[in-house]
Give the backbone structure.
Amino acid sequence: MSQHGRPSRRHFIATSTGLAASVAAGQAIADTLADVPARAVGADLSGHSERSKYVKIGRIPEAGPGKRNVDPSDAINSKAPLDKLVGSITPTDLHYERSHSGVPDLDPAKHRLLVHGMVRKPLVFNVDDLKAMPSVSRTVFIECTGNGWENWHRADENLTVQNTHGLVSTNEWTGVPLRFLIDLVAKDRDSTWMLAEGSDAAGVARSIPLTDEILNEAFVAYGQNGEPLRPAHGFPLRLVMPGFEGNLNIKWLRRLEFGDRPWMTRWETARYTQLQANGKAIQFQLRMETNSAITSPSGTMTIKPGYNRITGLAWSGHGKIAKVEISTDGAKSWKEAELNLPALPKAQTRFQMDWTWDGKPTKIVSRSTDDKGKVQPDRKSFIAEVGTNALFHYHAQQTWSIDETGKVRNVLD
Amino acid sequence: MSQHGRPSRRHFIATSTGLAASVAAGQAIADTLADVPARAVGADLSGHSERSKYVKIGRIPEAGPGKRNVDPSDAINSKAPLDKLVGSITPTDLHYERSHSGVPDLDPAKHRLLVHGMVRKPLVFNVDDLKAMPSVSRTVFIECTGNGWENWHRADENLTVQNTHGLVSTNEWTGVPLRFLIDLVAKDRDSTWMLAEGSDAAGVARSIPLTDEILNEAFVAYGQNGEPLRPAHGFPLRLVMPGFEGNLNIKWLRRLEFGDRPWMTRWETARYTQLQANGKAIQFQLRMETNSAITSPSGTMTIKPGYNRITGLAWSGHGKIAKVEISTDGAKSWKEAELNLPALPKAQTRFQMDWTWDGKPTKIVSRSTDDKGKVQPDRKSFIAEVGTNALFHYHAQQTWSIDETGKVRNVLD
């Protein structure tokens, strides 16, 4: 459905056996009106409006093998509850979270950002310096490069879409363009790489190639969905790298260094490298690929025969989502879903499609295409190309099977 | 600055006497590196990531003359802290709030929406029915029609921009298009008006003309910034009417009735009518006008001579913001500000401009223009046209005066 589009009433009415809406006439209307709560004066105002007590929504904290510590081989995740979210913005407190050594407690009055290396004028900034500069605000997804890993290496039919895809979220981020800081320190023209380093105990640090795309789009953020960053997301400063691996979006940012080659930190030699089928590893495979997942119906849900809206999220590190196709017969045939417009570049885009389930076992699948023509691969093609030694950048099509009782399960094709 | 634009480094460097950034070389760099916190393992994961303890941000609750009760002449407000927000999205818990009888505590499992009147098939929906239907998500502002009222009728130089403009906010709302519900109940073609009624104790109810624009854009929302509505914003259901008076965006929505004339509720006869200079009142003046305010520098702030970024928010109920101009000499001359793109229709748009303050007393003003060519009026022209009997739809240009000490004050021209 386009932003002002008209959804299909006929399809909905013809097939809504599960709909609880009832014809209301005469006494039925009076009963409905009598049903509302007593007209008592409600709760008073507050400085912050909290969630309803009836709303149960949260992330799933998942500890790594050794829980949080300074060993870079461990990490902890909190996955966003994609099955319970609507629209495309992720609630700030439910944005997925991953850290290697827990969330540091940083005093913004004491925090500094050092910008140095191959520059004419190294500078140290405090947080207020950055807030005083020209800013950019942009709604983009950030995704952990390990998102989807579970379905690469094992089949667990009890996984929800929060388990399989919950390491991606979309917020509006605000900060200072990297170009602006580069101009301030007068970067040497021969500097083609930048090191970004965090203040966490693990000292996460990544080398970033200074392509035109990155020079034009990266920024040092201090804001998230209108407010200061939350500690879990880098307070007081983080690097935002639209379209690139989550771990490059360095949180608790304390240092940017300019050089002419990568630093080969342990994060790019031991940790975030991609082992290929032939036993060789790829370094600096940084861009997040074209991806999508149906969030409803999805794993562990149960549906009824008749009308079911299929909806989900699509995203690509290459640009805008141009098309999402859905198959309701196990990838034999495909239909184009409606996108919620405008589709923003490098942001999650909501899609939906009317579907009448006939009650017979089947499989539903989504396949996204971005405006650079990149198509999300099926799992077999993806594995044929990449093998099964790798850990990152899994972005194959997600299949949900539905049995004759309507139970939805995660399956691998 | 465009989304990928390049801000003016030269302007910033040449005039940044207040900047705390310092040249860091040799020992200075080492000191900076030594400054960071001890590398202790940080806080563990959680289901929700909360704000930093260092961040103090909240709304201002303002009680009406009689505090909350069921008398429609009273109301209570919580204003959004525009001076402390960044970007264009308002944090969900800081979205402005206005209610006439407090926030009702509604159980979504028991809540119903009755849709009836001049229809062939009156229907009662529960919340799950609506969530199962095709949906639309849209980022739009909602604004209280009384926003800005303070500067119409009195001059208080101690007001902040939160005081003068804090009754407007922007969220991404998700729900069912009104067109879809109209098709389900088979509305009579002769029905040209709709009544929307809330479940609050005051029973706020408004008559809404069914123009093509409203039929195409209105929706019944159950989601806000990705999550279920918060109780203060209508949980479990509210009407969203992009571009129109906040009070039409009926919260705690329980009933939509279709008819062929307005119902003349007390909200449109006694409350939300607009008294003109000639003593006659206008009813159903529903659209919010072209507006803007500089949020920094703004009332009660103090600035220093040299570089100052001017930034603020602009919005229009007619469509997209096309242009924002800023005067730094009391509306004698104007310069075009940079907009953060894309500017979404009927949403707040962030603007900014470089400015060097020479330390002499002056006044700064913003003036917005939308894509329908509507220009925000200056205060004198606005009052010449509308008079001073009215209470609503104040949208004249906001002027901040700056004295020789850099203190910023709210003034009336």
